[in-house]
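User: What would this chain look like folded?
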Amino acid sequence: MKKIQIELVQTDKAMYDPGSVVNLEIKVKNHEEKIMQDLTVQLHPSHLETPLESETTNTFDLEPNEEKVVQMEWQSPEEDFKGYLLDIELVDNQLETIDTKTTAVDVSSTWTKFPRYGYVWDFTEGVNTKEKIDILKNRNINALEYYDWKYKHHQPIPEDREQESWLDWSGRPIFAESIRNYIQDAQEANMVNLPYNMAYAVVDGYEEDGVKQEWALYYADDNDRGTGHFQFSMSATSYLYFFDMSNKEWQDYIFSRTNEVFEMFDFDGWHADTVGEWGEMQTEDGRTLYVKDTYTEFLNRAKAAMPEDKYLVFNPVGAQGIENVNVSDVDVLYTEIWPWDRDLDGELYDDYYSLKKVIDVSREQSGGKSLVIPAYMSYDYGELNSGSAFNTAAVMLTDVTTYAAGGSRMELGDGNNMLSNEYFPAQHLFMDEELQVRIDQLYDFIVIYENLLRDGQENIENVIDIADYNHSANGDPDSIWTYAKEDEDYEIVHMINLLGVSDNDWRANEGKKETPTVIEDYEVKYYFNDEIESVWLASPDRNQNRSIELPVETGTDENGDYVLLEIPSLEYWNMLYMKKK
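Assistant: Here's the prediction, encoded as structure tokens.
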């Protein structure tokens, strides 16, 4: 351990409006038994490879074993939707570097371009909302799903607006004051708050609350999954009953009930859910339909029915009907992925490449939106081994697959927890210390490099050759998965390490996944489209997310013009970005 350390760097918000002030707290500790005089903290901001003007604090002293919090401010640039690296350097009175640490800043006027979605579910009395929000804010989470907070599915808030507590469908106590405290704490951190609710479900007693049976959805006669009213068992005594999302009266009912929520709580929109596609259904009057075919019209009407400043997110479970959501008026794309569901080409969503494919297709169909995927890791292992740790390699490989492709994950919430189950309160598995450190770095990385990951980049088919190692374009086991993208200013190469990994199953359902074999000093030959000015390497696995410039050696052979690069190492994910001349 260093004798004098930067213990912690944190900012006051999850994202910042353009031109606003970023407030930083930098915790420095003196582990020496002597006083350290005239120390200074320097802040060196940069955007990708470009350094910006630095800032310096006044000098300060540290008594033996003293810990001090240094306050700094950074004036963010006026340009919208940009990610920045802030490099914090502690120097002594000889201007020698003692320690360094980095952090990330997202300057964006809205969360919808670069969603980093988390969740909360503990609405018990007296819950420490500030502590939970701070943990998520420090990992740059910029929006929260409020899971199972509601009074009833078809009546999210009580008729008596003065009622301050109720039980959810499973009997958990919900306190309105806790909900309000979460919202207030999250708003102070510039995080968006979205209440979860079903788009088309009710619970027992619905007719007494104005829901008409004639709006109901029934299994079609030849649907082998059930008969009668389409319903779903939540517990031994609790059922959800489903209604026709294309029925205008149902739409008006649920939209009105949703808007009532905004009168009681300062939520920022609606996270609408489904239970997926269950085959052909029919309405009360005998009309047949598939639920997924109702999505576009329902969502467009829902968006129009809400106040203009409210966001809409929707979950087509299993990505069934996602093509209808992608072309709708939702603000952010979201879908639970399950390995037994299939895409429109008939391919299963069961491997790493399938995650990239659904992200690519959704971006194309939606005009550039970044898909959020809550792919629940080690599902069965978690249920059978509650209280165990996540497999770090399994989580990291699914995460880097998603973010390299230009998507995002729903995995972090309730403070320091991570999802392994679609029922969010089922916190079966935990992040060990190694995974927490890696997640901290990864969630800074995706902010720092958001303008290379999901800001208009398109796939290109350029040849990438890695000498001496297996490599593939589709995420094959025991290979380096490589592919290229480009935008107006850069050509970008992603390298995801699957060397030594025996399968490409993202779910790691049994809690097992080999750690990729780390390699060092390997050579990459990349055949470029445009003349290259400079080449930079960035990785969440090394150098505190800082980019390093690589020497550029170009050449030409029978396959075209190439750049030859020496890469220091590959652990999970390397990203090369090449500035065009």
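The chain has ten helices and 38 strands. If you want, I can go into more detail on any region.
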